[in-house]
Amino acid sequence: VFTLFALAALATAQDTLESVKAAFESAGIVGDVIPAFDPSVLLTVTFTNPDGSPLSFTAGTLLTPAQAARRPTFSISPADPSTTFLVAEVDPDAPTPQSPTSAQIRHFLGPNFSVVGSTLANTTAALSDYRGPSPPAGSDPHRFVV
């Protein structure tokens, strides 16, 4: 099990910049993983269920590795089509939060994401393809930061 967070913000219309900022602070991401966090855009991370339907969640929600097995898609609001992004997904708690000796594990790194509508589309190959989470048995939940 791991907890998913996004650096700009995360997940569904239920999230606000304020709720994402609070989730980052509550989880210790601010100060432990990043020095400060003052989001100005809402990044939506969408994983899909095995049937292809979107998986709805909010920042700080516990997800199983199976729920995050497939590479997510991203959208952003407000969307500025003149901006490009680098998307990085990391696990700061590997192999376990109790003993994070391998932290930071990179799950994805993709440059040149641009806004198409409100979706972020990657225009070049990823620097490292998506690697789903695989925490060891007995691990406490991991923070999975996008």
UniProtKB/TrEMBL annotation:
Top-rank taxon: Eukaryota
SUPFAM superfamilies xref list: PEBP-like (SSF49777)
Protein name (record): PEBP-like protein
Source organism per UniProt: Exidia glandulosa HHB12029
InterPro entries: PEBP, PEBP-like_sf, PEBP_euk
Signal peptide bounds: none
